[in-house]
Design goal:
The complex is a heterodimer of chains A (106) and B (116).
Chain A (H helix, E strand, L loop, with lengths): L3 E4 L2 E4 L5 E7 L7 E6 L6 E5 L3 E2 L7 E6 L2 E6 L8 E7 L5 E2 L3 E5 L1
Chain B lengths: L2 E5 L2 E3 L5 E8 L8 E6 L5 E7 L8 E3 L7 E6 L4 E6 L8 E7 L4 E2 L3 E5 L2
Parallel strand pairs in B: 2-11
Antiparallel strand pairs in B: 1-3, 3-8, 4-5, 4-9, 5-6, 7-8, 9-10, 9-11
Classes of the chains: A mainly beta (106), B mainly beta (116).
């Protein structure tokens, strides 16, 4: 099983600040890494697929990068509505999710 | 508009069974690899299993904690995905989502509570 480890687990950020979340895979997964946003009592929403492809309708402040084992989700100029938990997910082999990163607005 | 609507959740005793359904509309269901993901209360997302499209073999894969107890199936004529859950344990308590993951389609989830 491929283990995905996200860091940090929690981040408290002021609006307009830049947020960086990393996801490290236990073995190389190429670009088969995807990012989701989940707000309380809602289903997850796809933000980025295949490491860097923005999903339709996602604000341009969200971007993804990386390949192999190290990946990054960046939120430029954080907005209050971005308070959520963010998950990475790999589809290289049997799918797995990272443990999640909770982003709180200060 | 794409919709995935789960149903069938509820309260069940340990050792019991439950079948979840996921009705799909708004996309070509028969071409989609469909997945079940669960989320225990206050916890993160956990992949449960998937079923490939029939054109890709229609095979299933499962996460280790549910293998041998859960069965995923699909009826493309009804655009419906199923999750048969047997020998349920308290640790199976979660909201269960159906999803076509990298297509970005998720249902609203259905709560399964396993408790005596």
């Amino acid at each position: 099983e491929i283990v995905l480890t996200q860091s940090p687990d929690f981040q408290s950020v002021t609006p307009k600040e830049k947020v960086t979340i990393t996801c490290r895979a236990s073995q190389s997964i190429g670009s088969s890494l995807h990012w989701y946003q989940q707000k309380p009592d809602q289903s997850p929403k796809l933000l980025i697929k295949y490491a860097s492809q923005s999903f339709s309708g996602v604000p341009s402040r969200f971007s993804g990068s990386g390949s192999g084992t190290d990946f990054t989700l960046t939120i430029n100029s954080l907005e209050a509505e971005d308070a959520a938990t963010y998950y990475c997910h790999q589809s290289s082999s049997l799918p797995t999710f990272g443990q999640g990163t909770k982003v709180e607005i200060k | 508009e794409v919709q995935l609507v789960e149903s069938g959740g509820g309260l069940v005793k340990p050792g019991g069974s439950l079948r979840l359904s996921c009705a799909a509309s708004g996309f070509t269901f028969s071409n989609a690899w469909m997945t079940w993901v669960r989320q225990a209360p206050g916890k993160g997302l956990e992949w449960v299993g998937r079923i490939k499209s029939k054109t890709d073999g229609g095979t299933t894969d499962y996460a280790a904690p549910v293998k041998g107890r859960f069965t995923i199936s699909r009826d493309d004529s009804k655009n419906t995905l199923y999750l048969q859950m047997n020998s349920l344990k308290t640790e199976d308590t979660a909201v269960y989502y159906c999803s076509a993951l990298t297509s970005g389609y998720w249902g609203q989830g259905t709560l399964v509570t396993v408790s005596s």
